[in-house]
Please model this.
Amino acid sequence: MSSSTPEPDSFEAVFGLPLKSAITQTGVGAPMPTKGPMRRIAHLDMDAFYASVELLRYPQLKGLPVVIGGGKKSLAKQLNGVDPKDWDAQTPLDQFPQLKDYAGRGVITTATYAARHFGVGSAMGLMKAAQLCPQAYLLPVDFDQYRHYSKRFKDIILEICPVMQNIGVDEVYLDFTHVPGGQRENGLSMAKLIQRSIFQDTGLTCSIGVAPNKLLAKMASEFNKPNGISILLESDLESRIWPLPCKKVNGIGPKADSKLKSLGIETIGDLAQRSLDELMGHFGQKYGAWLYAVSKGQDDRPLETQSDPVSISRETTFERNLLAAKDRSELGEIFTRLCTQLSLDLQKKQLMGKTIGVKIKFDNFKVVTRDQTLDMALDQAVDIRHAASQCLKRIDLSRRFRLLGVRVSSLVPKGQVSTPQAQSSHGDDVSSEDPKRVLTQREIQPSLLDDAEN
DNA sequence: TCTGGGGTCCTTTTCCTT
DNA sequence: TCTGAAGGAAAAGGACCC
Model:
């Protein structure tokens, strides 16, 4: 490739040396800025990621309103008897279920731009979405597929810019500062190259913001969606950031925003007019000081290129609200399934955890959690279930609830911990058995809700 | 809007120990 | 044995994000 004339927009054509050399010989022969390196942080956000991945598979849905979600795996199957696994690019449109055929619980995970025109959006109940856009096609969520494309676009980025922080499946921060060519046109060249490389390989588009820090880069990536690039300099703060509403800041959610509004603070510019003391008085030392810094565009957080998980959990919302006293066996099965899934998740990641907790969401949406830290880390379903049911005993389950969750935290890498097998807390020597082993009725029956009621 | 599932981080409360 | 202060760890709740 590099022996012939490079393609017009290739790394070599833009930066004057082959990509591989640029990476391995950082700074050697690479175009470097004439002044000292300015911090150039990029935030890259894939455009409507899940929906775009689905459209790659089902091009016949392009341009049509499509919503993704519904929660239940068997969703599409229930709707018209066709397993989504059997769908492909040849599947005729009338095989795809539509929202008008749907009745039940669940929310939308995401929607195509065509569906968003009808006012349908993320986190909206499916029934509400069906009112707004009954003709929208409904697809189940396929995380394996999204993870596959996630890895693909991140691998492409890493070849060009090795300093990357993962933010979920469809978002990353990048540090261009010391990457050869990263300073060119204040980061525009690098952003263009990355955007183009991802599109060529995957057919997916993304939006990129480049700025002096993560805070501003994140906001900048939204300026020009979809498939846009925005370059933000420190001097742009007043003209481009201050006019924005406060809730555009990553970290200012609905609660903080409404409190800010009650103080007459609508925009980031308004925020910048307030003193540090005033903000700390209203929002506390830490958050107040953070708000103050945010309004000035200040953020010196480094990129975190590695991170270990803090907790792992599984939770599920029931088809209908359940009552511990009445729905014992159903709840017992759900509880066992959650613990089993959690155990497999832990084992897949080679982790064990010392703190086990449960979460209940009552029919009035009030959430209650209980957890317990044990002497030893564990990862087996039966052990998790036993510890979690101890936690459940401490919750008053006399009213109906809609969600049950199980969580493991205080995680440690497996192999670095002594296992609880030698002294299994419940006496049954089951911990050392096959993790995929199905729990026996005897283990399930003396179940959560028996225990929990007394 | 009528509210999923998987996380992180922060603050406050509670409990234990000295 | 009681009381109170102080500090730390664990537990609980909540805001926020994707």
Observations:
- Residues 122, 167-171, 250-256, 355, 357, 367-373 of chain A lie near DNA strand C (CB under 10 Å from a C1').
- DSSP finds 18 helices and twelve strands in chain A.
- The first strand of chain A starts at residue 41 and ends at 46.
- Chain A has a mean pLDDT of 83.
